[in-house]
Amino acid sequence: MITVSGKSVCWREGMTVADLLKQIDDSQAYAVVRINDSYVTRPNFGKTVIPDNSEVFLIPMIAGG
Length: 65
Description:
The chain is mostly beta strands.
């Protein structure tokens, strides 16, 4: 199991950030994801593997002016 923004989510071996976003079916655009104490940017979502028992925080894109 992993924790994603405070909610428990099933984990599987080799799960990437991109896999996680598909699994939770969230259409929000995320610029950055924090896994424990490491930050991952969008270009690396498909190749960054999430370790079991991780705490993941989804950080949405924010626009302003």
